[in-house]
Amino acid sequence: MDAVVTRFAPSPTGRLHLGHVFAAAFARDLARAAGSRYLVRIEDLDFGRCRPEYEAAILDDLAWLGLAGDAAVRRQSQHLADYRAALDRLQALGVLYPCFCSRRRIAEEIRASAGAPQGPEGPHYPGICRGLSAAERRLRVAGGESYALRLDCAKAAALAGRAPGFVDEERGRFALQPERFGDVALARKELPASYHLAVVVDDALQGISLVTRGEDLLPATHVHCLLQSLLGLPTPRYRHHRLLSNAHGARLSKRDGAAAIEALRRTGLQPAEVLALARSR
Ligand code: GLU
């Protein structure tokens, strides 16, 4: 059997809950079943929300649960040069453009143009900066304006041509529909990566062959696959799993205190009991 390298990639914006334990055990068990490796990656690029104390607590909970990774933890904030290199490559392909719009400007434009297409993360960026001239872009960047780098989705999809799509092991093959997100932001002036770019670069660099994650991220896989094709990276296999819910049927969140691993540990539960609880939800 091929090596099945999987990963669990939490963002240190809070403590772990049972949903995270389910996800980590899911990834770990598939790797173990294939006699292969399971890795842990800390996705800490959102500097405003991520905190070192959350990271320490997450790693402590994982170790306690027996769900620590099989190799050193990769921390995204320590690999900005890798994302910069990928960004430069996309830039050279001509599929990125600087977008100077504030959130407010985008919201106004969307309100004014009824019927803006909706993507999984909200309305598509309405393309205000897509058509700026090269001269205006240079001038505004040189003038110190802040900007995001957006993927020109139509141009990128045309360049990728008939990219092969991806396979979800539970749902089957998906044809690529990268236009579902519109022109996503892949970086900001002060940060050469966003989630979508970093996850693609990291999965390739870490040799992840099976990406397991919650089904809420299934739509994002279309964008990730397009980026893999543009960057000449392999497309792993995917397995999007169910999300755990709370007593009211809503998806578990960091606000569901009763499901927090910290709280469960304090009640005296043992790691195996917490794992069983996560699997039985
Ligand atoms: N860091 C993401 C999260 O905590 C997971 C991303 C992924 O697995 O691709 O939701």
Offer a concise description of the structure.
By secondary structure, the protein is of the alpha/beta class. It has helices at 18-33, 52-65, 80-93, 103-112, 134-142, 153-160, 195-205, 220-231, 261-266, 271-280; strands spanning 6-8, 38-42, 74-75, 96-99, 118-119, 122-123, 148-151, 166-168, 172-174, 185-188, 210-214, 237-241.
Summary keywords:
binds glutamic acid; alpha/beta; 281 residues; Rossmann fold; 3-stranded parallel sheet; globular; 2 domains
Q: What does the model show?
A:
- The chain has 281 residues and is α/β, with parallel strands linked by helices.
- The chain folds into two domains: 1-78 and 244-281, Rossmann fold (3-Layer(aba) Sandwich), CATH 3.40.50.620; 80-205, HUPs (Rossmann fold).
- 39% of the residues lie in helices and 15% in strands.
- Strands 1-2-3 form a three-stranded parallel β-sheet. Strands 4-7-10 form a three-stranded antiparallel β-sheet.
- The longest helix has 16 residues, at 18-33.
- The model has no long low-confidence stretch (mean pLDDT 94).
- Glutamic acid (GLU) binds next to loops.
